[in-house]
Amino acid sequence: xxxxxxxxKPDALSRLGDILETIHAANLIVIKAKMTTLTLYGxxxxxxxxxxxxxxxxxxxxxxxQFMSSGPVVAxxxxxxxxxxxxxxxxxxxxxATARQEAQGSVRARFGTDGTxxxxxxxxxxxSAAREVEFFFPSTAGH
Length: 143
Ligand code: ATP
Fold this sequence. Notes:
The chain has helices at 16-25, 47-51, 61-68, 83-91, 96-102, 107-111, 126-136; strands at residues 2-8, 29-36, 73-80, 120-122. It is an alpha+beta fold.
């Protein structure tokens, strides 16, 4: 079984129930979950920018971190067969408009708004899944 980090972004928080239903129907299980509001710049911790570190040079970075800290998110560790790819397929294409054209039943087609406000996040590799799970659910074990 594989694990991945799934996040319901602020624009889709009110659809959490529908998204959980989608996760359940796909035979993935939620093994950890947390609702939190990511902090932004100018604070001791800057969680939104840390989470999307890899995108800091992109033109959309500032919009992205602004959006990601605009309200609560729900982060979940999912487990299942090929969980990483399975969850990304359920999400659909990054841009919600593209998702509505090319992946009609997907989470982003159903609940996303546009290219930035796209309802959900999913880790894209085993390495990023490990990093992102640790981001939201730090292990106290390390010794
Ligand atoms: P995520 O990493 O959130 O699952 P993704 O892997 O589909 O999404 P990335 O390319 O990693 O997409 O981009 C991270 C996030 O940045 C996207 O989910 C979206 O919110 C935002 N984003 C990506 N590309 C654009 C863009 N061209 N314009 C505006 N926002 C974008």
